[in-house]
């Protein structure tokens, strides 16, 4: 049987989603807990991987088991009791044998959250950034992302992907009180892509570069041309869409 598992986590204490040789990961903890409850070795495949310190409002993953989970709601309750407090399961649903959490995803949506005032309750949950920002100008710059598909300038160097092409479906800044949120949806994302885009858009917002220069950065296809990556703790995976 194959199951999709929907979960959220606070990434502060983890070295990202994916199993690491020298650090605890969300995937590792989840595989161990699900395996103990099912009494077998379990491998879990996520919709993508989040970096160290990055959070997820909704991550989707799949796993195979020799057993049938007769009561998924009860299983979720037992699993949540077993997992640490910073990982929570929303639901587990049976899917067809060839459904794939990563390859079947139509899109993923991330949010980058910024607090513009010091807030001790958001220290590891939002980027504290107190510079004055021109949000309408940042949105005009974000609109430029729709005109491109190659985002090499916002990709981590020396990755093993075959293409740096992505189709961006949404990119906008919204403001709510002291919080500034950048939402971006695409069919796929490159390593470090959202944080690099945010860091560069912040340069636009504080007047360090123009929209025309932002476009030139994209067109140069050179990571060294873009701004610094925004810190990991402000980034959240918030949604993964599937055709089923």
Descriptive notes:
There is one protein chain. This protein has 244 residues and is an alpha+beta fold. It folds into 2 domains: 94 residues, Pseudouridine synthase I, catalytic domain, N-terminal subdomain (Alpha-Beta Plaits, 2-Layer Sandwich); 135 residues, 2-Layer Sandwich (Alpha-Beta Plaits), CATH 3.30.70. It is built from 5 helices and 9 strands. Strands 1, 2, 3, 4, 5, 6, 7, 8 and 9 form a 9-stranded mixed beta sheet that branches. A hairpin with an 8-residue loop joins strand 2 and strand 3. Helix 3 crosses helix 4 and helix 3 runs parallel beside helix 5. The radius of gyration is 19 Å and the shape is globular. The protein starts with a strand and ends with a strand. The model has no long low-confidence stretch (mean pLDDT 96).
- The CA-CA distance between the termini, in Å, is 17 Å
What's the alpha carbon Rg, rounded to whole Å? 19 Å
Q: What is the element string, with H for helices and E for strands?
A: EHEEHEEEHEEHHE
CATH homology-level superfamily of the largest domain: Pseudouridine synthase I, catalytic domain, C-terminal subdomain
Number of domains: 2
Q: How much helix is in the residues?
A: 10-25%
By DSSP (H or I, 4+ residues per run), the number of helices equals: 5
Q: How would you state the average pLDDT, rounded?
A: 96
CATH fold call of the largest domain: Alpha-Beta Plaits
